[in-house]
Specification:
- Pfam families: SnoaL_5.
- By secondary structure, the protein is α+β, with helices and mostly antiparallel strands.
- The chain has a single domain, classed as Nuclear Transport Factor 2, Chain: A.
- It is built from 3 helices and 7 strands; from the N terminus they run ααββαβββββ.
- Strands 1, 2, 3, 4, 5, 6 and 7 form a 7-stranded mixed β-sheet that branches.
- A hairpin with a 3-residue loop joins strand 5 and strand 6.
- Helix 1 runs antiparallel to helix 2.
- The longest helix is centred in the middle third of the chain and has 14 residues.
Length: 125
Amino acid sequence: MENDTATMTTQEVAARFNELASQEKWFEIQDELFADHVRSIEPSTAKYLHNAEGKAAVRKKGEDWVKLIEAFHGGHTTEPVIGGNFFAVGRVADITVKGIGRMKMDQVMLYEVQDGQIVLEQFFY
């Protein structure tokens, strides 16, 4: 039998991302859709989060961020907008962060897809 696991298109990756994001399954997104050599880029003005490279480092970055969140009061991720091998979503989250207090995060999250996997996530806020 031939290998029938065809490489997902950007549209298919974005659709699966959207399905998981709507359920707040962020680590499942990393496990399922991120390439081993994924890069995670924060704005140059970011105080609390830093860039990471490689699936394990990006996972640790996410886990470290989650540890700082004392309470999640609600959030929403928009439908993806696709252009070429990129897609972007808007993300709003109402959270309480240790040492900062309650805040509303409002950001654009950009993803680059190559060979059916996310190779870059970049945040704008």
